[in-house]
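Hi support team,

I'm filing this because I wasn't sure whether my run with manganese (II) ion finished correctly. The job status page said complete, but I'd like someone to confirm that the output block is well-formed before I use it downstream. Pasting the exact inputs I used:
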Amino acid sequence: MLSVSSARLHARIAALARFGALPGGGVTRSCWSPAHEEARGWLLGEIKSAGLTPWVDPAGNVFGGLGLDRFDGATPAVLTGSHIDTVPEGGTLDGALGVLAGLECLQTIHEAGAAPRRPLAVAAWSDEEGRYGSLFGSRAFCGRLDAAAIPAMAAVDGERLVDVMTRAGFDPLRAPEARAPAGAVDAYVELHIEQGPRLEEAGIPIGIVDAIVGIHRARVVFAGQADHAGTTPMERRRDAFLGAADYALKARELVVARGGPRVVTNVGVVQVHPGVSNIVPGRAELVHEMRDPDAAVLERLAGECAALARDVATARGLAVEVRPMSATMPAPCAPRVQTAIEAACAALGLAWRRLYSAAGHDAQNLAAITDAGMLFVPSRGGRSHRVDEASDAEAIERGANTLLHTLLRLAA
Ligand code: GLV
Ligand code: MN
Ligand code: MN
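And here is everything the job wrote out:
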C-alpha cells in the first residue's frame, strides 16, 4: 500500500520551524511578517522541488497543484491544506502539519505515478490565526471576505493589514479577487493536530471531525474617569479596570452556568488606558471570546453577556459599550469526507472516533463552497498554542498516511 515518507515530512516540519523560531523553543510567525514571508518563499521552493505547480493568489494563499495550475471550475480539484502562520509564542505543528503533510501526500502520489481522476492541490491559507482577520485567506477564497472591511482591519496593537500586506508585496484591496470560481473545489480535507486531550486520553490515533465550533468575539469597553492615583480618595474613583475585571469574572460564571457542557470562554486581551501606575484607569477594554458547536447557544449567551456588562457598569458608575467583533458560524463536516476518512482508517487498520473541533479552522469556510472535512491526530498532553506543542512521530506518520488514502479515495 502506498505510504508517505515520514523522514521527508519530519525534515520539512523541522525546516519550517526555523522561520520565526524562538530561543526557548516554539515559533512566532504571524502572517505577513518577515519570518512568514521567508517561510512562504521556502514553501514555494519545496512545492516546486516536489514536482508540483506553485502559485500564490491575491489573498496570499499559497498553492501547489498536481494536474492543476489554477482553479478554473471546469476541472474540480480535491484540495487539502492548512496554514503556516502561527499565534505568538506558538508551536511547530498547528497548521504546519496540514500543509506539509498535504505536500508530502501529493509528492508521494506524483512520484508513484498514480493518476487520480481528479487534480489535487495543497493550500497554505493566509492569516488563519487572525492577527488581522480570522481565517482571512480561506474567507477570501470562499467569497466571504468583505472588501469594504479591509482598510479597517488591524491587529490588537494597531498594526494595519493594508500596511503589512503592502510591505509583503501584495495589494490588500485585491484580496477578494482570490475568490475561487464556482465548482473549482470538489472536496476539501484538512489534517490537523487535535490541540486538546481527547484522543490521547482515549488512546485513539485518528479523530474524524463531524463539526467545527462557532466562535463569537466582542470588544467590551468600560469608560470611567482618569484621576491621580495618589491623591484621589478611594470612594471618588471611577476605575474602568475594575469594571473590566468584574465583568471577566462574572461573564465566565454566566457562560459556564448557562452555556451547557461544550461551551468555552476566554478573555485573552485586556488594555488599560492610559496604562501607567499613577493614573486611575479611565478606560479599560477587553476581548471576550466564546465557542460552542451550537450557534443558538452563542447568540443567546452574547445577549446575556451584553446585559451583564451593562449591569456591571451601572453598579460601578461606569459607561460601557459592547462592540461585536466577529461571529463565525459552527460548520458541519461533510458525510462524504467523513466516510472517506473512515475507509482510509479501515484500510490502514487504524482505530478512529468522531469528535467536534473546539478550535477554529479554514475548513469551516471551505464547508460553505464544497464538501469539507478534517482529521485529527493526538496532541501530547493536549497542549497547543504554546511553545511545547507536540505530537509523537508515529502519530504524525499515521495521520499523514490517513490523509494520503483519504485524498486518493476522494480523487478516484
Ligand atoms: C485557531 O487557532 C483558533 O483560535 O481556534
Ligand atoms: Mn492555531
Ligand atoms: Mn491551526
